[in-house]
Amino acid sequence: MVNYRRNFIAGGTYFFTVTLRDRQAAFLTQHIDALKQAFDETRLTKPFQTQAIVVLPDHLHTLWQLPADDCDYAGRWRKIKSRFTRLLVQRSVLITRNEKGEYDLWQRRYWEHTIRDDLDLQRHVDYIHFNPVKHGLVDRVADWPYSSFHRHVKLGIVPADWAVGDEKSGVRFGE
Question: Rounded to whole angstroms, how far apart are CA atoms 157 and 155?
Fold first, then answer.
């Protein structure tokens, strides 16, 4: 077994990729309200700031800033995944169980990257926002509804036509 070490820095900023076990499923976008509820309920007891997020049918990418005295992103993900799963079960969504009898909705692990500096942060925000285009879900970033891109446009951080045409130019976003 691989001995994976995570980086825990109180007040750190982290990029995450979290994925459903079934990569053909679309539960995240089909039940976006339940996912939002799971995030909101978790944030009440374990605060964090979402700097950027995109939700695709089978996975999501997000950037979080944790409180200055806290590095427990693992506990936050446990709560979000658990709450979302329970909400789907309450809605009678058929979710398979593994050999231990546990719901088998999420991949057990997730990708985490500690943001190093402002350039690293910007590259990951760009990666997050461009991801629906990368996956062929839309032609323009602005056309994907489940993204913090729209908030960034409202705040004047990026124009509404950001990255239009870049999918053919070879420009790489993020990692």
Answer: 6
